[in-house]
Amino acid sequence: EPEVTQTPSHQVTQMGQEVILRCVPISNHLYFYWYRQILGQKVEFLVSFYNNEISEKSEIFDDQFSVERPDGSNFTLKIRSTKLEDSAMYFCASSEAGEYEQFFGPGTRLTVL
Amino acid sequence: LAKTTQPISMDSYEGQEVNITCSHNNIATNDYITWYQQFPSQGPRFIIQGYKTKVTNEVASLFIPADRKSSTLSLPRVSLSDTAVYYCLVGPTGRRALTFGSGTRLQVQP
Questions:
Q1: pLDDT band at residue A44 using 50, 70 and 90 as cut-offs
Q2: What phi and psi, each to the nearest 5 degrees, are found at residue B44?
Q3: How far apart are CA A35 and CA B35, in angstroms?
Q4: Cα angle A31, B103, A89; round to 5
Q5: HSE toward the beta carbon, residue A111, CA cutoff 13 A
Q6: A98 CB near a chain B CB, below 8 Å?
Q7: Measured on CA atoms in the order A97, B41, A70, A15, is the torsion positive or negative?
Q8: pLDDT surpassing 90 at residue B21
Q9: Residues of A in contact with B39 (CB under 8 A)
Q10: Do B73 and B64 meet the contact criterion of CB atoms below 8 Å apart?
Q11: Omega into A25 within 30° of 0, i.e. cis?
Q12: What percentage of chain B has pLDDT greater than the value 70?
Protein backbone atom coordinates (compact mmCIF):
# COMPACT_ATOMS: atom_id res chain seq x y z
CA GLU A 1 0.00 0.00 0.00
CA PRO A 2 1.45 3.40 -0.94
CA GLU A 3 2.32 5.64 1.98
CA VAL A 4 3.65 9.07 2.80
CA THR A 5 7.20 9.02 4.10
CA GLN A 6 9.01 11.68 6.11
CA THR A 7 12.62 12.30 7.02
CA PRO A 8 14.18 12.63 9.45
CA SER A 9 12.09 10.97 12.12
CA HIS A 10 13.66 13.18 14.77
CA GLN A 11 15.53 16.45 14.35
CA VAL A 12 17.25 18.33 17.13
CA THR A 13 18.36 21.87 16.46
CA GLN A 14 19.48 25.00 18.24
CA MET A 15 17.24 28.02 18.49
CA GLY A 16 17.79 30.34 15.53
CA GLN A 17 18.93 27.59 13.18
CA GLU A 18 17.22 26.72 9.92
CA VAL A 19 15.66 23.29 9.50
CA ILE A 20 14.23 21.52 6.48
CA LEU A 21 11.75 18.73 6.98
CA ARG A 22 11.28 16.40 4.06
CA CYS A 23 8.31 14.45 2.83
CA VAL A 24 7.62 12.14 -0.08
CA PRO A 25 3.87 12.20 -0.76
CA ILE A 26 1.99 9.36 -2.43
CA SER A 27 2.98 9.45 -6.08
CA ASN A 28 -0.35 10.13 -7.81
CA HIS A 29 -1.54 12.66 -5.24
CA LEU A 30 -1.91 16.28 -6.25
CA TYR A 31 -2.47 18.06 -2.91
CA PHE A 32 0.12 18.28 -0.18
CA TYR A 33 -0.13 19.53 3.37
CA TRP A 34 1.83 20.20 6.51
CA TYR A 35 0.38 19.96 9.99
CA ARG A 36 1.97 20.16 13.38
CA GLN A 37 1.13 18.83 16.81
CA ILE A 38 2.70 20.26 19.91
CA LEU A 39 3.00 17.60 22.59
CA GLY A 40 -0.35 16.97 24.22
CA GLN A 41 -2.18 19.41 21.97
CA LYS A 42 -4.34 19.33 18.87
CA VAL A 43 -3.19 18.65 15.35
CA GLU A 44 -2.95 22.06 13.68
CA PHE A 45 -3.08 22.83 9.97
CA LEU A 46 -0.14 24.81 8.61
CA VAL A 47 -0.37 24.93 4.83
CA SER A 48 -1.75 23.26 1.74
CA PHE A 49 0.01 23.17 -1.62
CA TYR A 50 -1.33 22.47 -5.07
CA ASN A 51 -0.03 23.02 -8.58
CA ASN A 52 3.26 24.35 -7.25
CA GLU A 53 1.78 27.04 -5.10
CA ILE A 54 0.32 27.53 -1.66
CA SER A 55 -3.46 27.20 -1.79
CA GLU A 56 -4.18 27.89 1.87
CA LYS A 57 -2.21 28.67 5.00
CA SER A 58 -2.98 29.21 8.64
CA GLU A 59 -1.94 32.03 10.96
CA ILE A 60 0.83 29.80 12.26
CA PHE A 61 2.45 29.70 8.84
CA ASP A 62 4.22 33.05 9.02
CA ASP A 63 7.27 34.37 7.18
CA GLN A 64 9.53 31.97 9.05
CA PHE A 65 7.95 29.06 7.21
CA SER A 66 8.17 28.12 3.56
CA VAL A 67 7.29 25.08 1.48
CA GLU A 68 8.71 23.80 -1.73
CA ARG A 69 8.34 20.94 -4.14
CA PRO A 70 11.91 20.86 -5.46
CA ASP A 71 11.36 17.89 -7.76
CA GLY A 72 8.62 15.49 -8.77
CA SER A 73 8.64 13.53 -5.56
CA ASN A 74 9.71 15.61 -2.56
CA PHE A 75 7.79 18.19 -0.57
CA THR A 76 9.67 20.21 2.03
CA LEU A 77 8.92 22.49 4.93
CA LYS A 78 11.59 24.99 5.88
CA ILE A 79 11.70 26.90 9.13
CA ARG A 80 14.19 29.73 8.73
CA SER A 81 14.99 30.62 12.30
CA THR A 82 13.63 28.12 14.76
CA LYS A 83 12.14 29.14 18.08
CA LEU A 84 11.63 27.05 21.19
CA GLU A 85 7.90 27.04 20.52
CA ASP A 86 8.45 25.38 17.14
CA SER A 87 9.18 22.15 18.98
CA ALA A 88 6.45 19.79 17.82
CA MET A 89 5.66 16.79 15.69
CA TYR A 90 5.34 17.85 12.06
CA PHE A 91 3.13 15.75 9.82
CA CYS A 92 3.09 15.81 6.07
CA ALA A 93 -0.05 14.64 4.30
CA SER A 94 -1.24 14.23 0.74
CA SER A 95 -4.52 13.65 -1.03
CA GLU A 96 -5.55 12.67 -4.52
CA ALA A 97 -7.90 15.61 -4.79
CA GLY A 98 -9.08 18.29 -2.43
CA GLU A 99 -11.17 15.94 -0.36
CA TYR A 100 -11.21 15.05 3.27
CA GLU A 101 -9.33 11.77 2.97
CA GLN A 102 -5.77 12.82 3.53
CA PHE A 103 -2.95 10.37 4.04
CA PHE A 104 -0.55 11.33 6.78
CA GLY A 105 3.08 10.45 7.15
CA PRO A 106 4.64 9.18 10.38
CA GLY A 107 5.86 12.64 11.35
CA THR A 108 9.12 14.36 12.19
CA ARG A 109 9.67 15.22 15.81
CA LEU A 110 11.41 18.60 15.91
CA THR A 111 13.13 19.56 19.14
CA VAL A 112 14.46 23.11 19.42
CA LEU A 113 16.96 23.69 22.21
CA LEU B 1 -16.92 25.56 10.17
CA ALA B 2 -19.34 23.52 12.24
CA LYS B 3 -18.25 23.17 15.87
CA THR B 4 -18.01 19.58 17.03
CA THR B 5 -18.37 18.19 20.53
CA GLN B 6 -17.31 14.68 21.50
CA PRO B 7 -16.49 12.98 24.79
CA ILE B 8 -12.99 13.56 26.06
CA SER B 9 -12.42 9.91 26.87
CA MET B 10 -14.04 6.48 26.84
CA ASP B 11 -13.08 3.13 28.27
CA SER B 12 -14.00 -0.26 26.89
CA TYR B 13 -12.98 -3.89 27.02
CA GLU B 14 -11.77 -6.15 24.28
CA GLY B 15 -14.55 -7.67 22.23
CA GLN B 16 -17.08 -4.96 23.01
CA GLU B 17 -18.72 -2.62 20.52
CA VAL B 18 -17.79 1.00 21.05
CA ASN B 19 -19.94 3.91 19.95
CA ILE B 20 -18.49 7.41 19.96
CA THR B 21 -20.98 10.19 19.38
CA CYS B 22 -20.13 13.58 17.97
CA SER B 23 -22.45 16.55 18.18
CA HIS B 24 -22.44 19.12 15.36
CA ASN B 25 -25.56 21.23 15.74
CA ASN B 26 -24.66 23.87 13.14
CA ILE B 27 -23.68 21.52 10.35
CA ALA B 28 -24.15 23.08 6.91
CA THR B 29 -25.91 21.51 3.94
CA ASN B 30 -22.67 20.87 2.07
CA ASP B 31 -20.75 19.53 5.08
CA TYR B 32 -19.57 15.95 5.32
CA ILE B 33 -18.72 14.12 8.52
CA THR B 34 -15.33 12.46 8.68
CA TRP B 35 -13.59 10.47 11.37
CA TYR B 36 -9.87 10.07 11.84
CA GLN B 37 -7.91 7.88 14.24
CA GLN B 38 -4.55 8.72 15.77
CA PHE B 39 -2.22 6.35 17.60
CA PRO B 40 0.45 7.82 19.89
CA SER B 41 3.36 9.35 17.97
CA GLN B 42 1.73 8.67 14.61
CA GLY B 43 -0.11 10.76 12.07
CA PRO B 44 -3.91 10.70 11.93
CA ARG B 45 -5.48 8.03 9.77
CA PHE B 46 -8.74 8.39 7.86
CA ILE B 47 -11.40 5.95 9.07
CA ILE B 48 -14.71 6.81 7.43
CA GLN B 49 -16.73 9.60 5.89
CA GLY B 50 -20.44 10.07 5.40
CA TYR B 51 -23.14 12.56 4.53
CA LYS B 52 -26.33 10.94 5.77
CA THR B 53 -27.82 7.63 6.98
CA LYS B 54 -25.29 4.86 7.41
CA VAL B 55 -21.89 4.15 5.97
CA THR B 56 -19.93 0.98 6.65
CA ASN B 57 -16.45 -0.11 5.72
CA GLU B 58 -14.11 -2.83 6.90
CA VAL B 59 -13.09 -0.83 9.95
CA ALA B 60 -16.17 0.97 11.26
CA SER B 61 -19.72 2.14 10.71
CA LEU B 62 -20.94 5.70 10.75
CA PHE B 63 -24.51 6.46 11.70
CA ILE B 64 -25.98 9.84 10.82
CA PRO B 65 -29.58 10.69 11.76
CA ALA B 66 -31.87 12.54 9.42
CA ASP B 67 -31.24 15.96 11.01
CA ARG B 68 -27.45 15.39 10.75
CA LYS B 69 -26.86 17.28 14.00
CA SER B 70 -24.91 14.38 15.41
CA SER B 71 -23.12 11.28 14.23
CA THR B 72 -21.96 8.06 15.84
CA LEU B 73 -18.82 6.15 14.99
CA SER B 74 -19.27 2.49 15.78
CA LEU B 75 -16.28 0.17 16.24
CA PRO B 76 -17.35 -3.48 16.37
CA ARG B 77 -15.54 -5.83 18.74
CA VAL B 78 -12.64 -3.59 19.70
CA SER B 79 -9.21 -4.94 20.49
CA LEU B 80 -6.29 -3.48 22.43
CA SER B 81 -4.93 -2.10 19.17
CA ASP B 82 -7.97 0.17 18.83
CA THR B 83 -6.68 2.25 21.75
CA ALA B 84 -6.26 5.65 20.13
CA VAL B 85 -7.67 9.14 19.84
CA TYR B 86 -10.68 9.43 17.53
CA TYR B 87 -11.50 12.74 15.87
CA CYS B 88 -14.78 13.86 14.37
CA LEU B 89 -14.39 16.49 11.63
CA VAL B 90 -17.18 18.33 9.89
CA GLY B 91 -16.74 20.43 6.78
CA PRO B 92 -17.25 20.64 3.03
CA THR B 93 -15.52 17.88 1.17
CA GLY B 94 -13.60 20.37 -0.94
CA ARG B 95 -12.04 22.02 2.10
CA ARG B 96 -8.42 21.04 2.30
CA ALA B 97 -7.43 22.35 5.71
CA LEU B 98 -8.50 19.74 8.23
CA THR B 99 -9.49 21.18 11.59
CA PHE B 100 -8.94 18.73 14.40
CA GLY B 101 -10.52 19.13 17.80
CA SER B 102 -9.38 17.46 20.97
CA GLY B 103 -10.89 14.12 19.98
CA THR B 104 -12.02 11.19 22.11
CA ARG B 105 -9.33 9.14 23.79
CA LEU B 106 -10.46 5.51 23.68
CA GLN B 107 -8.76 3.13 26.07
CA VAL B 108 -9.41 -0.57 25.49
CA GLN B 109 -8.66 -2.85 28.41
CA PRO B 110 -8.02 -6.60 28.21
A1: very high
A2: -60, 150
A3: 17
A4: 55
A5: 5
A6: yes
A7: positive
A8: yes
A9: none
A10: no
A11: no
A12: 97
